[in-house]
Amino acid sequence: MSISAQFDFAPLLPAGLPAPAARWTGLAKYSFVGGNNDPDGIPVDGLIEAVNAVLKREGKALATYNLAHGPQGYRPLREFLTQKLKRDAGIACTPDDILIVSGSLQALDLVNHTLLARGDTVLIEQESYEGALKRLTRLGVNAVGIPLDSDGMRMDALASALADHKRRGITPKYIYTIPTVQNPTGSILPEARRAEMLKLSQQYGVPIFEDDCYADLVWSGERPPAIYAMSKHGGVIHIGSFSKSIAPALRVGFIVAPWAMMSRMLALKTDAGSGALEQMVLAEFCAPHFTTHVPRLTRGLGAKLDTLMEALSEQFGTAAEFEAPKGGIFLWVKLPDNVDTLKLYQAALAAGVSINPGPEWSTDRSYSTSRLRLCFASPSHQEIRDGVAVLAEVCRREFGVPARSANVEKRA
Amino acid sequence: MSISAQFDFAPLLPAGLPAPAARWTGLAKYSFVGGNNDPDGIPVDGLIEAVNAVLKREGKALATYNLAHGPQGYRPLREFLTQKLKRDAGIACTPDDILIVSGSLQALDLVNHTLLARGDTVLIEQESYEGALKRLTRLGVNAVGIPLDSDGMRMDALASALADHKRRGITPKYIYTIPTVQNPTGSILPEARRAEMLKLSQQYGVPIFEDDCYADLVWSGERPPAIYAMSKHGGVIHIGSFSKSIAPALRVGFIVAPWAMMSRMLALKTDAGSGALEQMVLAEFCAPHFTTHVPRLTRGLGAKLDTLMEALSEQFGTAAEFEAPKGGIFLWVKLPDNVDTLKLYQAALAAGVSINPGPEWSTDRSYSTSRLRLCFASPSHQEIRDGVAVLAEVCRREFGVPARSANVEKRA
After folding, report:
1. CATH topology of domain A26-42+292-411
2. What is the mean pLDDT of chain A?
3. What is the DSSP string of B344-393?
4. B33 pLDDT above the threshold of 90
């Protein structure tokens, strides 16, 4: 076939498409990116036991879309969630208040498509999940960052932003928050701030979009009630996921929302249901095992965090500043002001280390330029140590920091 | 909590949202709708065997998004598909040409979002899949129906439509076809027409969007090569699914496309991958068992079709006209001209029978008003007989047809 015979799709593409993807070339040797989990934390034997039981009992139901449980998903999984959400997050809801989705990313899409139009404004933690920020950019929505401190979103700043927008005649479409193990900072919003946020939400008629996808991974095992649970006015949309507590590749998340939102999101969920086998396996596994599995998982994650913090201290010395997160799978790190983490990202990738550069996780470019996110769940302890050493070498070569410190020399 | 305290989402909703969903109330007693499959056709034991093997071997990989196989999906499943597509459809492709998606509905969305903008035109079989038609309506795209005969899309009509649009300065964005077991008519487009379609596609610079999701379910086991396989210019996008051959609730489909399209669709597939467990189970099961499973499945489906056609003849006599489909899970039926199947749908539903009214499956309202689609895979033989009897009673009550025939009286 000659080149000239090739069909040309280019003239048919509409305006505004994102740039084409590049060919996938595999994960970096030392990968500190992505919400990947600890391979040793996957409860493989328990999942096998669960899948055998549920397929033997209900396998023929796979012949029917949604297992004939309707578009909100496999009912036993929604029943497990009502118990789990009550126990862990204080949420009183029924299976009819829950929609099972294909990962919390589909939850983001459904909430966004229900509420947002081009030109709208939302309020969001100044440092936030890159996937949420990128979606807003693509939708042409103005994401206004609210500064954080070590207890999460600052309520004084939120109150100011709401008042300021009201003066300008703008009603933000929602306040997006990751209150429990904030991404990327790892903080937990205290109960008093949650109450304050709810007060502001009601006062200004702006709903709260609560993303609790990391909330199971709290070192202490204790967390404040979900904002959804504390709401008396029903203006909260709550989402969560099994990606962090069980396995990200399963792609199962959920939305808890009032029917006024749920009925709109259902109308937009035109995928004939999320994967049923994964819902079946999760329900069967989680009902008996979730509460013993999660503490085992978080112990392993906590140990990896310790390794990461030790490696950073050893390799970067005082050049790397961070606050230990209260749970989760990532550490938010400040490097010296002269380090541009977008450039560091490129140089490190060439050396086999992938990191999340700060500007992709923030609405404030200058604040985030010298910051980065490091995910620690997926690499082994040895890979964490080796990867951080390579990262320090690259950073030193590119930016002159960290200096060859006493710590580093001691290793020789 | 007082009613007045309820948060009101309504002022926040953007224009153009679809109507809110109604609460799900379960399937009809006699359900002749939806692409549901035969519960007895689900290879439960084989799936259990497969899931045990693959989870024991690769279960820990669930800790990594996409099982670390990249955004195009689990590689062994793509490898199985290259062999299957070569053997069954004559398609020569590599795993890099395949994207695993969450059911062929996600394939429709990805192709549509890559090519279509509001106001665009596409050419589509005059009777076609309701989900495809509805998507085009929502996107504000003009779907121009090309008439069918018993061999599928008429090439004289396609040539005329292309010429007509060219005269008016309009380039349709694609020609959408379900050539192999057409939905809803069950025809198979002969090879000569496929060649003619390709010639027209190249002549007018309009790509072909080939939806082969029913193509495994051909009674004879033989089918013409896929249009994708016959193309020499690369202007074909091919999609398929495991919904009909294995189980719809799994939500696994695939796209085969040139990189010019693939790279754009990958950029739009922001769901962090489709469900991995389902991909793993399918690969593990299908590689050894697909070729023996499918003929067993289609034998069962063919028997149900026979039951349905017998029941229609018995209950409706000559009032129900149909042509036996060459495969698949549905029958397209013509009732007397005075029957409005949208009204019949409502009345039948109230009597416990769900049907697909013709106008939802056609671009031509007047042609389709007295037609309906009946899916026969999911109900049992007895349910088929009983459901058709109820449908005939309702139709007689509402429209006076079928008359009480000799056949019906004989049953008393």
Report:
1. Aspartate Aminotransferase, domain 1 (3.90.1150)
2. 96
3. HHHHHHHTTEE-EEGGGGBS-HHHHTTEEEEE-SSS-HHHHHHHHHHHHH
4. yes
Beta-carbon separation of A1 and B234 below 8 A: yes
Q: Which residues of B touch A61 (CB under 8 A)?
A: 39, 249
Q: Which of A63, A72, A249 comes nearest B37 by C-beta?
A: A63
- With CA atoms as reference, the chain A residue closest to B37 would be A63
* Residue B140 in this model has a pLDDT that exceeds 90: yes
Instruction: Report the C-alpha gap between A196 and A151 in whole angstroms.
Output: 13
Per-residue pLDDT tens for B200-212?
A: 999 999 999 999 9
* 145-204 of A, contacting B, C-beta below 8 A: 171, 173-174, 201-202
Residue A256 pairs in a beta bridge with A98, A238
- Smallest Cα–Cα separation from A384: which of A324, A326, A304? A304
Report the residue of chain A nearest B47, measured CA to CA. Answer: A55
Residue B79: pLDDT over 80: yes
The radius of gyration of chain A from alpha carbons, rounded to an integer in Å, stands at 22
CB contact under 8 A, B14 and A277: no
List Cβ neighbours of B185 (8 Å cut-off, separation of 6 or more): B127, B148, B150, B152, B323, B325, B332
* Angstrom distance (rounded) from CA A243 to CA A108: 14
Taking CA atoms, what residue in A is nearest to B122? A12
pLDDT for the residue B404: 78
pLDDT at B232 over 70: yes
Range 368-407 of A in CB contact (< 8 A) with B: 377-378
Domain spans, chain A: 26-42+292-411, 44-289
- Mean of the pLDDT values across residues B395-411? 75
- The pLDDT of residue A404 is 78
> Token match 């999942």: residue?
A47
Tell me: the pLDDT tens digits for A71-129? 999 999 999 999 999 999 999 999 999 999 999 999 999 999 999 999 999 999 999 99
The interface pTM score, or ipTM, of the predicted complex is 0.96
The b-or-e profile of A67-102 (16+ CB within 10 A means b, else e) is bbbbbbbbbbbbebbbebbeebbebebebebbbbbb
Q: Are strands A236-241 and A253-256 parallel, antiparallel or unpaired?
A: antiparallel
Q: How many CB pairs under 8 A join A and B?
A: 307
CATH superfamily of B25-42+292-411: Aspartate Aminotransferase, domain 1 (3.90.1150.10)
Confirm or reject contact between B275 and chain A (CB < 8 A).
yes
Beta-ladder partners of B331 = B374
- Within 8 A by CB and 6+ apart from B69, the residues are B75
Nearest to A406 by CA among A315, A312, A306: A315
Mutate to test the interface with A, among B9, B29, B56, B293 (most CBs of A within 10 A): B9
**Arithmetic mean of pLDDT, B355-364:** 98
3-state helix, strand, coil in chain B (%, to 5): 50, 15, 35
Flag if B207 and A12 touch (Cβ within 8 Å). yes
Residue located via tokens 């701030």: A193
pLDDT surpasses 60 at B407: no
In this complex, the residue of B19, B268, B271 whose CB is nearest that of residue A103 is: B271
Domain A44-289: CATH class, spelled out = alpha beta
Number of residues in chain B: 412
pLDDT tier at A289 (50, 70, 90 boundaries)? very high
- Residue A407 has a pLDDT of 53
Contact A120 B14 (CB under 8 A): yes
Backbone angles phi, psi at B356, to 5 degrees: -100, 110
Query: Is A232 touching B (CB cutoff 8 A)?
Result: yes
| A60 contact B CB<8A | yes
CA A274, CA A371: separation in Å to the nearest integer?
Answer: 36
Is there a contact between B21 and A71 if contact means CB atoms under 8 Å apart? yes
Say which of A47, A56, A96 has its CB closest to residue B55: A47
